[in-house]
Amino acid sequence: MEVPLTLEVTQGTVSEEAGAVPEVSALVVYPNPTNASATVALTVAAASDVRVSVYDVLGRRVAVLAEGPLNAGTHRFALDGAGLPTGVYVVRAEGGAEPLVRRITLVR
């Protein structure tokens, strides 16, 4: 049995809302694992209010790396883990409909 299929290919992408661009589009944490400090690189597609926080595995916020308006582009923030115990942490960037989350492991 054959089923007819038509495929139309167009350039570009379509989002749920026409013209919608996520404000926070990329989050990278490096080096990972780390023993003392790390860099958090955040790419913002459009100027917006953004909060970048670090949480421990119990969900307690242990640091706020950025809070407030950021221009479009890539921003880098230093995560100083010197005062934090060894373990797994979560870096969360909020600034759009969907927050971005990355894990980082701090080892000594």
In terms of per-residue confidence, which ranges show pLDDT below 50 for 5 or more consecutive residues?
Answer: 12-21
Q: How far is the first residue's CA from the last residue's CA?
A: 63 Å
| Biggest beta sheet summary | 4 strands, antiparallel
Lateral arrangement of strands in the main beta sheet: 4-3-6-7
Bulk shape: elongated
Series of secondary-structure elements, N-terminal to C-terminal:
EEEEEEE
| Average of the residue pLDDT scores | 84
| Secondary-structure-derived class | mainly beta
Number of extended strands: 7
Helix content: under 10%
Strand content: over 45%
Radius of gyration: 18 Å
In short:
The chain is mainly β and 108 residues long.
Summarize the topology.
Elements: E1 24-30, E2 37-44, E3 48-55, E4 61-70, E5 73-80, E6 87-94, E7 100-106
Antiparallel strand pairs: 1-2, 2-5, 3-4, 3-6, 6-7
Keywords:
single chain; 108 residues; mainly beta
